[in-house]
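U., I forgot to send this yesterday:
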Amino acid sequence: MGRLDGKVAVITGGARGMGASHVRRFVKEGAKVVITDLNEEGGMALANELGENALFVKQDVTKAADWEHVVKEAEEAFGPVNVLVNNAGISMNKNIFDITEEEYRKIVEINQVSVFLGIKHILPSMQKTGNGSIVNISSLNGLVGGAIGYTDTKFAVRGLTKAAALQVAGLGIRVNSVHPGVIETPMVTQGDAVGVIKEFAKHIPLKRVAKPEEVTDLVTYLASDESGYSTGSEFIVDGGLSAM
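Result:
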């Protein structure tokens, strides 16, 4: 038996990187997964690779209408949703002197507002099942300071997680946040970033960056019934950085 047998999951930003890692593990563990992303080519390729238990739906996570469409497609294909992984997000490394209002509003919409919309629109579907698990991907920078825009939105995801968890606990729905540190994705393993990350890894207590699958291990646990008494909490996977 798989750890996610009988689960219907929606994973945003699922076409590549950590999102794709989550999608692959969920299907392997028995879930039926709706992959959402703006990257239509990548999302379709992943769904085709995984077969009948995966469905790709193109989505702009900042649009309420797109969320309504995703839930409709999920229910028609697989039934009511009982797992949501709010994984979609962008990074930005600018200081407050340089970031524009337009850039700031964009990162707030993608990193923060999308999480609110996801929770709001998935809840009616979860109520049909009598249970559910929502996993919001925040960041180490949702716990400690960093770049303007990115840090504030990731702190907001942490706060939204706690507020939502308290409001839906009586419905049998759990809400938790995951806070990854530096993860080995294409963004940090190509070009000029390689040397920077290699040097930075020396300062991580475990002396390395994480594999995407190590975050997926935690996300899978939170999606499964194994974490049935955990809600409103932050789960950290950062190699010890936040302990320093």
